[in-house]
Write a structure and sequence with these properties.
Belongs to the mandelate racemase/muconate lactonizing enzyme family. This protein is of the alpha/beta class and 336 residues long. The chain has twelve helices and twelve strands. The protein has two domains: 110 residues, 2-Layer Sandwich (Enolase-like, domain 1); 211 residues, Enolase-like C-terminal domain (TIM Barrel, Alpha-Beta Barrel), CATH 3.20.20.120. Helix 8 links the parallel strand 7 and strand 8.
């Protein structure tokens, strides 16, 4: 199979402020796998260096190592090809692109949606959260009010930046009592900071706090001393983190898991250890969002997932637009 790689840049409608910096655009790679039968599979590699420490250049180097493997792999199954690529370079962000393209190609060849290849009865829609990153209290409140009016049943507010107490109070007032309010600190706090802050914010009816601190033991220490559910995100990259039982929930990312195959395996491990799994994007592009939606539809019965993020870009979200707090599973063969 021939591998084609194209770099793409997606501009945010407005800068996105995170605990690790401000994002104005999202650069990623779109890949295509073309075999002799001319059935094309499309994938996406979306590293986010401030978040995962992986550069586009690092991913490009891994994809180049995969090129001869894919070119000489006509007699191998998709799983064998992916294993061979992982042996050459186990970089999850690069493997995700190949995994997505192989699943997309399998769906197009069979005329089936990818989710239907993963399970007999996939969900037809995936509940998603709205994401609010505004630093200004009034702007955060306005964004939460708009999300509630649009039918979102869960809003994720970025914290660890600005006056968190005032913003959370304003967010809850704007949302009213019903929508869930999820906080994401991206590891901005220390244990000694997180415990009193979460204790103060708990009165606003929080669904959970995602990655208040970094590290397995640090997360466990916070979880043991607050009355709010704690979720793991960035810490999942640490060895043994998913099976550590350090948190009540685990946020899984397609890019960090190496694609759909790795994400489903990670979700099974999370559930086996008594925690709740849900899926979010690292501001992925349309192909990455499609892959995550198919994985979420196959898993079923998930909390709100962070897969409505295409609305943050200048481009039209198209088939992945959010309606009443959910995104419909694409009905075309393959990923989308």
């Amino acid at each position: 199979m021939e591998l084609h790689v194209t770099e793409r840049a997606l501009r945010f409608r407005r800068p996105v402020v995170m605990a690790y910096g401000t994002l104005e655009e999202r650069r990623l790679f779109e890949v295509e796998l073309v075999a002799d039968d001319q059935v094309t599979g499309r994938g996406e590699a979306a590293p986010l260096e401030p978040y995962d420490g992986v550069s586009l250049e690092r991913v490009a180097a891994a994809l180049e190592l995969y090129r001869p493997i894919l070119a000489g792999g006509d007699d191998l199954t998709g799983g064998e090809l992916l294993d061979a690529c992982a042996t050459a370079d186990p970089l999850p962000q690069a493997l995700a692109a190949i995994d997505l393209a192989l699943w997309d190609r399998a769906g197009r060849r069979t005329g089936e949606r990818v989710a239907a290849l993963l399970t007999d009865a996939p969900a037809e829609e995936v509940p998603v959260n709205a994401t609010v990153t505004a630093l200004d209290t009034d702007a955060a409140a306005a964004a939460c009010a708009a999300a509630a009016e649009a039918g979102y049943r869960c809003v994720k507010l970025k914290v660890g930046v600005g006056d968190d107490v005032a913003r959370v109070a304003a967010a809850r007032e704007a949302l009213g009592p019903e929508p869930e309010l999820r906080l994401d600190a991206n590891g901005a706090w220390t244990v000694s900071e997180a415990i009193p802050v979460i204790g103060e914010l708990a009165s606003y009816g929080l669904e959970l706090v995602e990655e208040p601190v970094h590290g397995i033991e640090q997360l466990r220490a916070v979880r043991e001393r607050v009355a709010v559910r704690i979720a793991m995100d960035e810490t999942t990259s640490e060895p043994g983190a998913i099976a550590s039982q350090a948190t009540d929930a685990v946020c899984l990312k397609l890019t960090r898991c190496g694609g759909i195959s790795g994400l489903l395996a990670a979700a099974s491990l999370v559930r086996a250890h008594g925690a709740v799994a849900y899926i979010a994007s690292t501001f992925d592009g349309p192909i990455g969002i499609a892959g995550a939606l198919h994985a979420a539809a196959a898993l079923g019965d998930l909390p709100a997932c962070g897969l409505g993020t295409l609305a943050l870009f200048d481009e039209d979200a198209g088939a992945f637009g959010v309606v009443d707090g959910a995104v419909l599973l694409p009905d075309a063969p393959g990923l989308c």
